[in-house]
Amino acid sequence: MVTGRSAASCCVGWTTAEELYSCSDDHQIVKWNLLAGETSQIVKLPDDIYPVDLHWFPKSLGVKKQTQAEIFVLTSSDGKFHLISKLGRVEKSVEAHCGAVLAGRWNYEGTALVTVGEDGQIKIWSKTGMLRSTLAHQGTPVYSVAWGPDSEKVLYTAGKQLIIKPLQPNAKILQWKAHDGIILKVDWNSVNDLILSAGEDCKYKVWDSYGRPLYNSQPHEHPITSVAWAPDGELFAVGSFHTLRLCDKTGWSYALEKPNTGSIFNIAWSIDGTQIAGACGNGHVVFAHVVEQRWEWKNFQVTLTKRRTMQVRNVLNDAVDLLEFRDRVIKASLNYAHLVVSTSLQCYVFSTKNWNTPLIFDLKEGTVSLILQAERHFLLVDGGGIYLYSYEGRFLSSPKFPGMRTDILNAQTVSLSNDTIAIKDKADEKIIFLFEASTGKPMGDGKFLSHKNEVLEIALDQKGLTNDRKIAFIDKNRDLYITSVKRFGKEEQIIKLGTMVHTLAWNDTCNILCGLQDTRFTVWYYPNTVYVDRDILPKTLYERDASEFSKNPHIVSFVGNQVTIRRADGSLVHISISPYPAILHEYVSSSKWEDAVRLCRFVKEQTMWACLAAMAVANRDMTTAEIAYAAIGEIDKVQYINSIKNLPSKESKMAHILMFSGNIQEAETVLLQAGLVYQAIQININLYNWERALELAVKYKTHVDTVLAYRQKFLETFGKQETNKRYLQYAEGLQIDWEKIKAKIEMEITKERERSSGSQPTKSTGLKH
After folding, report:
1. 506 by DSSP, 3-state: which?
2. What DSSP assignment string belongs to 68-125?
3. H/E/C letters for each residue in 425-452?
4. In whole angstroms, what separates CA 418 from the centre of its chain?
């Protein structure tokens, strides 16, 4: 839709999703009401004011309903900026620069304003228009400026260079050559932390916040005059002469329009990210709506054909359903046999079994920025908070944490499973908050998960028991880690699974993890192996070459045994992985061990046997573990498992299984709780934990001579002298009598055997399975 105006339109800005203000060289400020299709003149500015840039004051975060922005900044060619109210009253005019003020931008909180001008100065102003500081001064005009996501840095242009300057004095400045021509426009998104730049070299580029290039467009016929991120950071728009382009955040192009507009100088996205307005050189304002978005799940394909209409196609029987909505569609998600659609006022939940009767409920706030689905429920994120609903439309919970900013959450920083919600903190990016889905309260003892580096992407596994819930995450070094979600007192281990991982996804039906690692596509068929027997982890992986996916591919979904990957050029690639590991997971979760062994014998693959070995040890089924370890040639482990079987009591067996998995502390605790002090001392002697062995012997006043005897034997073997002060102290005047010690040990074993044969009730091991 293109709408005419007289003089060249310079700048545009949305107040709500349906109302836009525009300014032009004929000094008029015009309000456009898109619902009614009306335009009205708000005010005619004095003849000496030629507008250059317009930016509305940001809405306060977390407000109910769509309150409208009340004031905007308008920069002009006479070196001033003007604070103008919604009704068109000029509240304040401030002398800011020598020559034109080329751009003005509020920060995300609305606490500061940055202006740049032809005089090469970058100035920071207070909300009321008082000068706070001159951030920088350079010899060339600064054409464009943008705030960093945390409002603590400013990005601006300097000829062909881009510069990121923190507000703190003496902080490091980042500067790089970005284009071969003068840079005309920049934008920096707060959700994905990526930077856009456009230049006279007829190219647009995407950068990360360290100045590393992620995408470099082909040269166009004309200079690129405008770029702008959609609010959620998934899309961006590019404007040039007679050209409007819609692109994915990775750079590839969804659509190219050739409106007869002249150059598009300014692009503004509506608050809900469904439409854009462009200020054009021929005096027109161009409006465009984002349509033809597509969602896929198994055999269903859903397409947004118009602003209020979706088409559902079942590719198995070619059945087509049309879904009509009262208001325009803002966000949608299709997963777990449900389609969730949010419009400007309501949320619709469709079941894939029945498209005719959706469940509908009203939304607390208008603009939903993110929908996430799990098997039992789904999550909506809007400007006011995070809300969890069941598929029946029942409100379940709304997790909160201090300093929560919902406007910058995306699918990489929030994760949902049937019982857990995980959210990466923005203030401290090393922290992940974990909440119970049903109540919205912090998990376990309320501790958050803290990592040594900044976390980039998080993902919860989707299946299994709540107590076994795991979270995988990638940190800024591109290392992949896994850890347990349940955190009670003891510090849970954070274990590294892989390096150079760029993107990851959990399977929707069982806990299989896939990721793109440097030049390889990797599937971790049983990631929990790291908790059971880390040595066999490499044997539980599936790897294949990933060079066919080109640079910067992204995993879109992992449904059933199909992984969907989007390449950097926008094309989708589908990979099928073996269906057998998923069947193995199913057998093990329902304790069908014989079926699991039969399946592995049928498939005859190392990876299957290795997965079964780890699963069996994790579930304490040592008979199956023995068969599986034998199949992968781990003879030493087979012998150890055999020796465990011959142990006299179930506590000893339990302790040795724990030791097998490397949980020495837990093994010792199990033995001590069962009153098997000698056995606890013995495992420390076997592991050469001499300090701990003596400590236990002294504490329980038993077997001190046994510990000293083994220590002496150990030192004699290596021809060493005792140097440990504690050992010297207890060995003073003590004669080692091996006959006596052997008799004592024999007695301990007999005692344990008698206990386990039922002459005495055994204590609970106190260990959770």
Report:
1. strand
2. PP-EEEEEETTSEEEEEETTS-EEEEEE--SS-EEEEEE-TTSSEEEEEETTSEEEEE
3. CCCCCCEEEEEECCCCCECCCCCCEECC
4. 17
Task: Quote the pLDDT of residue 766.
Answer: 37
At how many degrees (to 10) do helices 677-686 and 738-754 cross? 120
- 541-585 pLDDT, tens digit per residue, is 999 999 888 888 999 999 999 999 999 888 999 999 999 999 999
Q: What angle do CA 87, 190, 224 make, to 5 degrees?
A: 80
- Specify whether the CB–CB gap between 242 and 260 falls below 8 A: yes
- More reliable by pLDDT, 221 or 490: 221
DSSP structure string for 512-548: -EEEEETTEEEEES-TTHHHH-GGGGGGGEEEEE-GG
Q: Strand 554-559 relative to strand 562-566: parallel, antiparallel, unpaired?
A: antiparallel
To the nearest 10 degrees (0 to 180), the angle between helices 677-686 and 650-660 is 30
- Region 182-186: mean pLDDT is 97
Q: What is the pLDDT of residues 398-449, one digit of tens each?
A: 999 888 888 888 999 999 999 999 999 888 899 999 999 999 999 877 788 8
pTM of the predicted structure, to 2 decimals: 0.86
**Distance of alpha carbon 158 from alpha carbon 160, whole angstroms:** 6
Query: Are 99 and 75 a contacting pair, CB within 8 Å?
Result: no
Q: What is the pLDDT of residues 252-277, one digit of tens each?
A: 999 999 999 899 999 999 988 999 99
Question: 439, exposed or middle or buried, with CB in 10 Å at 0-12, 13-18, 19+?
Answer: exposed
What's the token pair of residue 504?
């990851």
Q: Which two tokens stand for residue 26?
A: 């004929």
